[in-house]
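Same chain as my last thread, 355 residues:
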Amino acid sequence: MAKMRQFQDLGHHVVLLVGEFTAMVGDPTGKSESRPRLSREEIQEAARTYTDQAFKILDRSRTEVRSNSEWLDALRPAEIVELMAKMTVSRMLERKDFAQRYEENRPIYQHEFLYPLLQGYDSVALACDIELGGTDQLFNLLVGRDLMPRYGLPAQMVLTTPLLEGTDARMENGVVVGKKMSKSADNYIGLAEPPVTMFRKVMQVDDDVIFRYFELLSACSNEELAELKREKAAGKDPREIKARFARELITRFHDADAARGAEDEFKRVYGADAVPDDVEEVEVATDKPTLWIAKALSSAGLVKSTTEGKRLVEQGGVELDRTRVTDGNHQLERGKRYLFRVGSKNRRFKYVVVV
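reply #2:
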C-alpha cells in the first residue's frame, strides 16, 4: 500500500483490485494443503474492511477500486477453456507448493490450477502497466505477465515487496526468522488499533528485528537508519529506537498528539514498577494448605500448562508481589492474594487469590 501511494504521489493512476471472484476459488499460494473457499457474502464483508484500511494509506480521491468479479463472472465456459489452454500443467508444477504436494501424493484440485490463471487474467482485463504484490505472489504476477501478450497486450512489469515478519520474529545468525505478520498468527499490528495498543506492540518487537520494520515501513532515510544501527551498537537503549518507530507509525495512522499520548500512557502502565489500573482478579482453588506456583499460573490462564509455568519461573520470567521468583517449586499459601507479573516485553498482570 505504501508503495502504491508513492506511485500516486508521482502522478500515476492506481487501481486497488478486490479479488472477490478469486477469493471464492481460494488462493493456494504458500499452502501445503488446499485452501478453504469463501462465500461471496464473506468476501464482500472482508472487502469492506480491507478498503477502509487501505484508504488510511492510499488517497481515496485518486484511487480506482475494482472487483475482479466484474469480468470473471462474465467469462463463458469457452473463454475459460481458452484461458486454460494458454498454460501447461508442467508450468503450474514449477510452483513450490504444487510441486511439494505432487511429490508427496497429496491432492491438488483442478480449481487450484485455475487460480493463477484467473488472477493473471485480471491484468489482461485492466491492461496493467505494472502490478504490485508481495514476494509470495511472484508466480501469480508472472502468469499475468505471460498471458497479456497472448491477448494482444504489452506484458506488464512486476514489482514485489518483501513480506513483513510478525511481532514475534527473532534475529538468528543475522537473519530475521519467524512467521509473516498475520491476524491468524496473532503477531500483528492493526492499522485501525488504538494508539496505545500500537505503541505497546511495537515495543514488544525484538531489539534487532525493529530495524526490519524501519526498512520496510519507515520514511526515514537509509543514512538515518544506518545511524540508528550505529547508535545501538554503541550502547543506545533499544527501547528509545523502538519508541521512535512507534511514534512515526502512530502519527501516520492517527496524529502526533495521539503518538505522544500513547508513549506517555505506555510509560505509565508499563514502566519498571507500574501496575495497570484494570488488573483482573481470579480465584484459584486448592484442597491443600498451599498451591504450587506453576499450577496457579496455569489455572489463572497466564500460561498454557504447569510445565510452561515451572519453566517460566525458573527462567526468571515471573514476579510475585513485585519480587522475582525463580524457584520452580515455590508454594503459595491458601487464603492469600498475590499479584502476578509474567513476561518482560509483553507483560501480563493478574491478581490470584488462593482459596
